[in-house]
Amino acid sequence: MPSLWVFDMKCIAPSILSSDFSALADEIARVEQAGADMIHIDVMDGHFVPNLTFGPPVIAAIRKTTKLPFDVHLMIENPGRFLDDYIDAGADMLTVHIEAEVHCHRSVDHVKKRGVKAAVALNPSTPLASIEEILGDVDAVMIMAVNPGYGGQSFIPSSLSKIRRLREMLDRTGLAARIEVDGGVKIDNIAHISAAGADLFVAGSAIFGTDDYRTTIETMRRRIDEAIV
To answer: I need a surface site. Which of 134, 140, 163, 175 has the fewest CB within 10 A?
Structure first.
């Protein structure tokens, strides 16, 4: 496991889906130097979502370029069949979608037994009730604030209510799962997302679409810190 794991803090995870694919190693180095806490990697299969992205060989290759934890988000059908492939490639946290995994508890249990953090993701139209029975077993819950498949989409406003309700569920039950938000996270809304109860912030175009990654990440962190939860 990489030495820079900071899971208990509020973390910014640049999503390399929005990076320059021809210079992945350089892009990862730039966000690491700019103060990123994790690298978010969106895995898409062209079936669960209408796009194709990274497979285990690419992840294994870029694993050698950084000590930052890899937050690997499986947007694929039958994710349970491929867990070991992505763990072996270098994932430090592996997220499966509740909509795609019939045997979610089995997958979560397998991931954790491999020494990797396990998370479950929900699409915008998926209710929180769908994860109640797994909530005590996961390390994190990812709230999708856009419909998955493409980068650069706008944050769905109703996601704030969903984040608040999930925070209330966790606080009421005393569970320690972190809340991750993926989709449309930007400088101008990250404080609201943090105040709603989020802990982990995935940002793609909001970081990679700027000229100065350090200034962008520092501004995001300052707005997170200033948010009143």
So the answer is: 175
**4 belongs to a structural domain:** no
Q: What's this model's pTM, rounded to 2 decimal places?
A: 0.93
Decide if 45 is catalytic: no
Which of the residues 37, 45, 92, 182 is marked catalytic?
182
- Please report, in tens digits, the pLDDT of each residue of the chain (229 residues total): 444 456 678 999 999 999 999 999 999 999 999 999 999 999 988 888 888 888 999 999 999 999 999 999 999 999 999 999 999 999 999 999 999 998 999 999 999 999 999 999 999 999 999 999 999 999 999 999 998 777 678 899 999 999 999 999 999 999 999 999 999 999 999 999 999 999 999 999 999 999 999 999 999 999 998 875 4
Q: In what order do the strands lie in the sheet with 200-203?
A: 11-14, 200-203, 178-182, 140-144, 117-122, 93-97, 70-75, 39-44
The catalytic position among 42, 45, 92, 139 is: 42
Which residues, including other chains, have CB under 8 Å from residue 28's CB and lie 6 or more apart? 16, 19, 39, 62, 65, 66, 68
State the alpha helices, DSSP H only, in 67-186. 83-89, 104-113, 159-173
User: 84 an active-site residue?
Assistant: no
Asked whether residue 2 is domain-assigned, the answer is no
On whether residue 88 sits in a domain, the answer given is yes
How far apart, in Å, are the Cα atoms of 199 and each of 53, 84, 116, 119, 169?
26, 26, 18, 13, 15
